[in-house]
Structure formats: C-alpha cells, structure tokens
Amino acid sequence: MVSMKTRGARHAAARALAALVLLAAALLGWLVPAPGSLGLRPATAEDRPEGAPRVVGPYLSGVSPLPHDAPVPLAWMPPGSDLSPTPSDEIFPPQTITIRFNHQRHVGELGQSCLSCHASVTTSDRGSDRLLPEPVASCDRCHDVDHRDLAKVTAGEAENGQCGYCHLGAGAAEGKIARTVMPAPNLHFSHEKHLARNIGCGHCHGRVEQLELATRDQLPRMAGCLGCHAKPTAARGEAHAECTTCHLREPSGALRTEFATGPLLPPAWLKQSGHGPDWIERHRSVAANDSRYCASCHEENECVACHDGRVRPRKVHPNDWLSMHPTAARLDNPRCTSCHQQQSFCADCHRRVGVARDGPLGARPAGARFHPPPSEWTTAPRGPNHHAWEAQRNLHACVSCHAERDCATCHATRGVGGGQGVNPHPSGFVGRCGRAYAQNPRPCLVCHQPGDRALARCR
Amino acid sequence: MLLASAGLFGPSQAWAADVELSSQTVAQGYEVASPWEGSSIERRRLLQIVGFSLHRLQGATDGAGGDYSLRLGMRVDSDFGLGNHLPDRVRDAETRWTRASGAYFVPGLRTAQLDLMYGYLEGRGLGGGWLDFRAGRQYLVDVLGWWSFDGALTRVTTPWYFDLEVYGGLEQRGGLPLSTSRFEAQGMWRGRRADFGGEGEPRTSDFPGYQEAAAAPAFGAALESSGPSWVHGRLSYRRVFNTGSATTGMFDDGGALAGQTDELRTSSDRIGGSVQLLEGSLGGLRGGLAYDLYGQLIPSAYAGLEVFVGERVTVGADLDYVEPVFDADSIFNWFTKSPSTTGTLRGAWRIGSQVELAGSGGVRAWSTEGDPAAFGDAQCAAVGLGPGCGAAADIGDATSASLREVTRSEELRSTDVLLDALAHVGGSYRGSLGRLELRSSLQTGARARQVGADLSAERSLDGGRYALGARLSVYEFSELQSGEGSAGTRAPRDATSFAYVLGAGFRPLDGTRLSLEWEHDMNRLVGQRFRVLGSLELRWSR
Fold it and tell me: B335, A412: Cβ pair inside 8 Å?
C-alpha cells in the first residue's frame, strides 16, 4: 500500500518494537486474573455483629470434598477423571457454591439416600433442570429452620438451624445469604432415562457418598460417558455415540462450540485431536483419517479459509510472510501444496513480479537473473550448485515459477521437439514408462516426437 | 436446486426448516514487492462470501425418515489493484493483450473471480439410517488429499462395522465456470484460452503451457470403519481423467505448435489408506499412505505415535514422507525427483486448564540421486579434465556421448541426503479474560535458515462485544545462495523482520462482527510495508 524503503527502517523497527512491547505488556496485564475472590469461608464468631443471632462454628467439615481440601482419590472421582481431571468449563460453567454440606455424614452416617435430597432427578429429562435439594422438603425435615418463606427464613434455636451452620460467607451469620451460582450445563441429558436403565448416580458422579462437599469436580466426564456410549452398537442400545446425542448443536447440525467461557475444544485423548499449540502442525493426519469427525464441529467455511483461502491465515503464516515465503518454500515446501496450486496461485503472482521465465517481458529488467549464473546453475559439469540437485530435492518449488516450456527448452529431444536432448529421467524410468504412456501419452509427447526411438521403448 | 427443494418439500407440509444466512466482506490493501528494483504490485482486494443453508428440509418431523439439508457458499474475490503499478496508458495491460503489445499480459488473470465454493443437497439417515447422500459441489477429505468435485456421493452404513462410499462427477478445475484451480493436481496451468489466436489476442504459441480447461470426469470409492472408538480406518481409491485438447509441442513451428492430444487420458489414479488406533489412557498410533498408480510411487506417507504420560503430558513421534507428484498431463512427473522425509519428536504439557505448552524437534532429509559434491568431478574426468573443471569453463555439450554415459551411470546415482534441522515451540493461555499465544520455529540447513517467533494477545471486553488484539513477531531468515555478485543476479535474501499487527473488533448485534487490522512489517529488503484489513461478518438464522 505504502512503500518507504529507507535506511532508517531498523531504527523505526526498534522504536516500534519498544512501543509494542509496552502494548503487549498492557494487554498481558489485562489478562492477569483480577485480584480477590468471593472469599467464601465458614462463618466464625468474629463475623457476628451486635445483636445478631447466635453464632455457631467455626465449622471445618463440609467445605471441601475431603477434610483440609485433601485430594480425592481417583477411585472416588467420576469415571473418566483419569483422562480429564476437571470437567469442561464450556459444558459445566464455573459455579459458586455458598453451602457447606457433608455427603459422607448424610449418606454414610445418617443413612440418607441420594434421592432423599435430590428427589427430582427421577423425573428430570433436561440437562438444565435444577436438581439441588428443596430446602423445605429436604433440609427443614431435620434442621431447625423454616425455609417456607425464602424472604424471611426463620432459624430455630438448635445449632443446626442457624444460617451460618450451612451457609458460607461473611454475612451468613446475620442471615445475609450469598447466592449459590450453578449455571445450567450446556448439554442434553436425561437423568430419568439413565435411572430407568438402572444406571446409578455413582456411574457418572463417582463415590460422592465418601465425600463431604460435592463440587463441580463430581460432575461427569466425557470419557466416562463414552464408557457406555462408545460401545459397539449392540451393547450400547439406544445410547448413540453421535456427538449430538449429548452436545448442543447449531441449526447446521454442527456442534455448538462458542460459549461464554470460551471455545469448546476436544481433549487430547479423543481421536488424538487435542487442539493445543501444535495443532496446526498435527491436524492433517487426524483429518485425513476421519474427516467426518472434524465435521462434527467445523463447517466447510472454516477449512476453506485456509485450504482455499483468500485472506492470509495468521495462524499459519506469520507477519511479513510475503518477505519470508521464499525461504519457507525452500525449507518446508511440501506444506505449500496443501493449500496452493502452484501453476496458478503461486506462478500467477510470480509472473506479475517478474519471478517467472514466462512472465510478462515488462516485469523483469533485461539481464536480471533470479538464479546463479549459467556456469553454476545450468551447464555441465554438474557442480553442487547445479539446478538439477535443487530440482531433485524440491521440484515443487521449481513448478511454482516455471511452466513446461522452460524445462523443455533443454530437456526435450533435439530437432522439432525444440530441446537439447538433456535426459532428465530418473533411474528405473524405462521400467515404469510403459504403463504411464498407456494411461496418458501427453507428457511423453511434449519432449519426444511420436517417431522418437527413445519413445518406442515405452510403448 | 433451491426451486427443486422447495417443490419437493414445501407444499406438502408445514415449513419447519432451519434457515441460515451468512456473509463475509473483507477489504485488504497491501503491496507485493518485486525482487528487482522498481515497481511493486498493488493489491486492493475485496472478498465477498455469501452462505445460505436450509436444514431439516423434510419439515416438522423428527428426521426418522431422513434428514435433508441444502448448503451453498459463493464468493467473489476482486483485486482492484491490477495494473496500478503500470503507466496510465497501459493500466489494463495485465488482462488485455492488445495493450503494450502483450508486454504485461498474464493469461488467466482476472479482476474479479467468482466461484461456488460448495453447493449441495444432502440427505442423512435415509432408509432407516443406512443411507446418506450428497449431490452437488462438495469437498472430500481423506488420505488422498483435500479435493472438490461436482457430482454425487452415496454412503451406505453396513451392519459389519464399516461404511461404503461411492462417488462420481467432475473435478473442480480452474478456468471452468464458477471454479478455482485449487483442487486440481499440481503441475498444469489451465484456464480459458478460447480466444487465443483471434485478432488482437495472443497466439497459442505465446503461452504453450497454458492449457484450455476442460471437464475432468472422476470417480472413487472408499471403505471406512464405523462403530468402535478405539480404531478407525479408511481405504480410498480415486481416479480422475483429463479430456479436451492439450498442447504437446512447446515450440513455435512456423506459427503453430507442433502437436496436441485430445484423447481421454488419466489425470490422477490413486489408492490410499489410513488407520488410527487409540487407547484413551495410554495413547495412540496412526498412519496413512497413498500410492500413485500412474506414477507407480508413494507420494505421501505418515505415521505417528502418541503416548499420554499422566493426565497432562503427551509425548510423541511423527514421520512424514512426501514425494512430489503432478497431474498425469504434466511432464514434471518424469523428471528425476526425490522424496523428503521429516522425523520429529514432540511433547505437550497442559498446565492447568488454561495454559498449554508444546514443542517439537527433528530433522528433514532431502535426498538426491547422486552426490552433488562428486558428480561434477566425474563429468570432468569423462572429458579428460581434472576435478573442478567446471569452475573455469563450460566443458561442452551435455548430451555428448561421453558425458551422457557418465551422467546415466548407476554408480553415480546412489542416494545422497541433505539434512535440515527444525524445531517448534508454542504456548497458549486461554482464559475467561483473553487469549495469549506464542509460536516460535526454527528451520535451518545448508540451503536456508528461518528462525523467529510470534506473540499474540487477544482480549474481549464487555462480554465479547468488543475485542482488542495484537501480534508481535520477530523473524530472521536467510537463503544461502551461490552466484552472489554475478551480473544481474538479484540481491541475496537475508534479513531480520520486525512486524506487528494491531486489531480491534466490535459486535454491534448478535451475529454481526466488524473488525479492523493494521499490519506494519519492517525488514531491510523491502523497508517498511503496511497492510490494512477490514472485515464485516453477518450471520442470521431461524
């Protein structure tokens, strides 16, 4: 657009670099998580204002899955936790739990069942159903508290009826209850169907009865789901393994992948398709093996954006690519052809800027050479810089600029063929040429006349 | 197709299809520098893509009898910078032969290229779930490559853990209506030259390598596994034919080219297979191989091993083999050429749920049929001269009997290998507040070197309504080249490049996104260059 080739380019670059480092630092600063958190902790005596209800605690149980936030043994975690230590933020958005609760005590010691508190799961047919315990039906039966009017919850005299007995947060002691935030999962799920097939809570949630507080970590993992859903057809019954059996989808049928918490990305263990920092280098073999799997999430547009793109994809080609691409073509040429047709995409531009022998006469100054002089590049003897070696190593690069006539000038047979008869064929060529000639004689006839004796050996 | 689908599905039942419309408009402005002193070509590009989809065409049923959809994507890629670097009087000389006596003419170059990216009717789950089909322009991706054709594809799901796929049609080819050349085999330059030879038009002999595009019939079949998650494989075969006339003579023979061929002939004929074995808690193994039945060689093969070391670390090894192959019409298939093989070891470490690191390193082997360091000396000896004779003078006719004999000698054609080293290191932070990515690479060898890194950051504001981004890069590159200082040879390409991109995005409404990017590149070869890119994306569905 604007070209200013100056000697001061390096100085300008240095100034720009300094400014950019500052800019990047500013951006990075924004990326640091904001300080502070909800500061949830058990209520203590220090929290009690003047005249407030009786203060209880502090309580140390029920505030984490195991006492002192000890790690939960893998055997008690939901199936699949060995592959996915934490549930996906995109499927199960982050939660804020402002309750302390001891499942081990309620289930193990008090003999309650899961359904005692989570009764609505038996009829729940949607992932978005709220399945937390109803305080009146579940809590008030045993605790000395009346939740019937949530605007005016009445605490009894017993310690287990005090707000701070269960509710966490700085204001819990005086009845200021911090809101529990538990967003609906981005998932299709029917508890009813699973329970009807005698799939117990632990099949998906792990050994919650061994834990105190159940957290997001006790939510299912996809690897656990696939334990049944990916079984062969006969064994899985109606539990189809299609992605859309569980995942939300767009009108196009592709999975919904954009969520407030970020993009939904596959884990590394699923078809070896983890979209990590090296995915661009690795995705080829995954797509070549199972492109329908890719199409679960990606529409054609996304692939075309690079593989037949019209805008340089920055994830593939870095900044200043126009200056660097000749070097890259020497070093990593096989990758070029995965997106570019050389005789049109590459050569068209090369012709216009005078980097092609059959380009417009006006595009290259008279006498200008792109390659080394003929004594090194074209004539015998064939020294280390001869074009034959580079052509053997990297013929795609040659074809990015040269059309057939450029090569036939020397490599076609003499005479009407117009060339100089320099044989370019590889070892063992004669053994292969007959079959090739039968399928397509055209390349032979470019360099050989129909009556050529050499051609007779391939007929 | 639209009318047909409306007729098929519209009148008989309540309209319940999902409709999706999308568009993308991208304006770009930048320059491409010539390696010669003087003019650079200007790019003033405007890209417009329109997408239209109808889903659940069967109406308000649950899809038990099949799920039908229609998808369409078209684009126009215009470059209003063509000829801007030329004097006013010949500004359209790149696209018109008559201007400047053809001095700037490039066959096939057009100001605006319109193409249908895809457009097909799809049916899934027909016949009780056993049959899928697609009809129209569609893509096909497998071990044989990324490909597009106009035609029909049918897939049958069998009860024996595999699907059978059969397809046929015409390969998408540049020069044909609404088509690009991206999907045809390499090595041929095709387009429309129907006007060649007319008054005020170039002669065919002016561009003998530029072939008239013609329909390319193609067919193929594939077997693909289905069901078990621990294994997946696909075996694929495809054959494409060339039709129409192709020039064979490259040199002017009294005003006409010496010959042409117009028979039905092979364009490509390939078979390939790929397989992946996976054990979720251990790792996986995958590999693929294609075989070119026309060239009787393996154009590509790959293999990879991946091991999950604990919950967060993955290590692996990859091998990639590539040998160039071209359209069967092309002479390049029969030049001496050698494969390149890349072997790498890699590792990835997921640090928490937001940070990942990955790195790889290895070598790429370029082979030649003969030792470049010794081959020339043998040629010198063949004509009775001492080693290194070529440095002083041309030793004569390369086709002389004595030279030809030594050149074709099998003893001098043993494989010689040149190694390049390569490494990549990347990292990413992806959190609720933004994204940060680092990509760095090193590739170095006897012929060239490129090393550098990109750091990019993106931050969303106001719940994603606004976005800011920046990308900073530093690369050093050099091409080790002989012949420097020779009269007329272009300057050596080695430089350090500093570049940055600043961008901003805005979503005024759901399904709408505006963005603007500014790129500033600096290196000693081209000085300072700028690129601006603005885009508007719209998406609507109901």
Answer: no
Q: What b/e readout covers B362-385, taking b as 16+ CB neighbours within 10 angstroms? A: bebbbbbbbbbeebbbbbbebbeb
User: Are B265 and B295 within one domain?
Assistant: yes
CB neighbour list of residue B517: distance below 8 Å, 6 or more residues apart: B469, B501, B502, B503, B531, B532, B533, B534
Range of the structural domain that residue B313 is part of: 130-320
Count of pairs with CB atoms under 8 A, one residue in A, one in B: 592
Residue B99 shares a structural domain with residue B154: no
DSSP state of B188: -
The tens digit of pLDDT for each residue in B270-310 reads 999 999 999 888 999 999 999 999 999 999 999 999 999 98
Taking CB atoms and an 8 Å cutoff, what residues of chain B touch A272?
276, 278, 284, 286, 304, 306
Q: Identify all chain A residues contacting B532, using CB atoms and an 8 Å cutoff.
A: 1
- Considering CB atoms only, which of A340, A349, A381 is closest to B390? A381
ipTM: 0.90
Tell me, yes or no, whether B275 and B159 share the same domain. yes
**pLDDT of B192 higher than 70:** yes
Decide which of B111, B145, B175 is a domain's last residue: B111
Chain A residues 388-427 with a CB less than 8 Å from chain B = 388-396, 398-399, 403-405, 407-409, 411-412, 414, 416-418, 420-427
pLDDT at B201: 85
Q: Is A242 on the interface with B (CB under 8 A)?
A: no
Q: Is B380 found in the same domain as B268?
A: no
Q: Read off the pLDDT of residues B116-147 as tens digits, 9 standing for 90 and up.
A: 999 999 998 898 888 999 999 999 999 999 99
Cα separation, A410 vs B247, whole angstroms: 18
pLDDT tens for B389-438 read: 765 556 666 667 777 788 888 888 889 999 999 999 999 998 777 899 99
Q: Which residue among B44, B79, B111 closes a domain?
A: B111
Asked whether the bond before A424 is cis by omega within 30 degrees of 0, the reply is no
> Which of A6, A27, A433 shows the shortest C-beta gap to B527?
A6
Residue A188's nearest CA partner among A134, A286, A256, A252 is: A256
Q: Are residues B242 and B299 in the same domain?
A: yes
Contact: A3, B40; criterion CB under 8 Å: yes
Same domain, B263 and B191: yes
Chain A residue with minimum CA distance to B282: A269
Q: Residues near A392 by Cβ (< 8 Å), separated by ≥ 6?
A: B336, B337, B338, B367, B368, B369
Taking the model in full, what pTM does it have? 0.87
Q: Which of A304, A332, A432 sits opposite B117 (nearest CB)?
A: A304
**Closest CB from A24, A34, A396 relative to B455:** A24
Q: What is the total count of domains within chain B?
A: 3
Residue A13: pLDDT band (50, 70, 90) is low
Question: Who contacts A320 (Cβ-Cβ below 8 Å, separation ≥6)?
Answer: B473, B475, B497, B499, B521, B522, B523, B529
Q: Are A241 and A228 in contact (CB under 8 A)?
A: no
Q: Which of A30, A379, A418 sits opposite B434 (nearest CB)?
A: A30
Cβ–Cβ contact A18 with B under 8 A: no
